[in-house]
Amino acid sequence: MLLFWVVAGVLAAAAAGLILMRAAGAADAAAAADPAPVLYRRQLAEIGDLVERGLMGEGERKGAEAEAARRLLAATDAPTAPWTADPKSRGVLLAVVCAAPALALGLYLQLGAPGFGDQPFARRLAEWKASDLRTLPPPELAAVLREATAKRPNEAQGFRFLGMVENAAGNPAGAVSALRRATVLEPGDVDTWRQLGEAQVIAAGGKVEADAQATFRQVLALAPGDAGARFYLARAKAEAGQASQAAAELQALIADLPAGDARRAYVETELARLQGRPAAAADPQQLAMIRGMVDGLAARLKADPENPEGWVRLVRAYAVLGDAGKRDEAYAAARAKYAGQPAVLKQLDEAARAEQMR
User: Fold this and answer.
1) 215-234: pLDDT as tens digits
2) Domain locations in the chain as residue ranges
3) How far is the C-alpha of 57 from the C-alpha of 250, rounded, in Å?
4) What is the CATH topology of the domain spanning 284-352?
5) CB within 8 A of 303, min separation 6: which ones?
6) Which is nearest to 262 in space by CA: 329, 320, 346?
7) Do the domains spanning 138-275 and 284-352 agree at the CATH topology level?
8) Cα–chain-centroid distance for residue 127?
9) CATH T-level topology, domain 138-275
């Protein structure tokens, strides 16, 4: 690494020296004779040649020679100010160019890691696979799952899990790709279609675009009356400028939701926003109490993670609260921890699918 910086500094100094040499040459050339008089004298000679060859008349010759002579006199009388370069500025430029790589090298030695070896991706991936998957952050866990799904491309559950982890890793495009593959493998699984639609909305920056609309229509085909699909399709109409139709669909959805449904308040808030009226405020004490209970459960699981029922409750709680990021992180961590217990994995899947509307 140090050799690289030395070579870079030498090359930068050489480039600066070459530039300065060429600039000095240009300054010396500027002090030479002005080429304009030579050009106009040659033009006069060419006029005479054209007359001798019969290509120009005598009247045209006089006019052309008069114009060329006028330009010759003007060029001869015009004062010339040859370009010169300040020798002091050359030194400053050379010093700056030489100091830049030296300064960069100093900063690198102070803040960088010159002794840090190369990290090939294959070697890092092998280390992640050999480690405790429960300790891996979502990006590394997603890399492990990509390799696993590549080796087992016909298992829909692996792609569903990968989609959840990709979302937690902040890679919605990867989540969409994984979940789309899962729907191909199990086209009748409505929960996978729901997850795909939500991932498409996240990937589009919160907008319900054409792909997401098609996905949610497929959800309705598999589960008529699905609240989440109806909500997102109503939002799509609102985004398309069909406010009245969107409001009507949201009102119908509110009427179909039970009074105690946690999603009802969210739909009412969206309807109020669409209609331009203030939404009913949520009970802050109740909300704070609920979040306090969930945070307490998360803290207990962090101190004592050997609690499968607690992980299931935590995943379901985050899903109900609409905190998709924490839901996916908890889901990924719990699935990695209990990978060999199918019964727990089934409960985690069901918990993650609860109250899918945010």
Assistant:
1) 999 999 999 999 989 999 99
2) 2-111, 138-275, 284-352
3) 91
4) 1.25.40
5) none
6) 320
7) yes
8) 27
9) 1.25.40
CB count within 10 Å of CB 149 equals: 20
3-state SS class at 57: coil
The model's pLDDT over 12-43, given as tens digits with 9 standing for 90+, comes to: 777 767 776 776 666 555 555 556 666 666 77
Q: Long-range contacts for 81-90 (Cβ within 8 Å, ≥24 apart)?
A: 82/27, 82/30, 82/31, 83/26, 83/27, 83/30, 84/27, 84/30, 84/31, 85/23, 85/24, 85/26, 85/27, 90/20, 90/23, 90/24
What does the DSSP 8-state code read for residue 134?
G
For the chain, what's the residue count? Answer: 358
- Tokens, residue 118: 């190369």
**pLDDT, tens digit, 9 for 90 and up, residues 176-205:** 999 999 999 999 999 899 999 989 998 888
Locate 107 and state its tokens: 């900063």
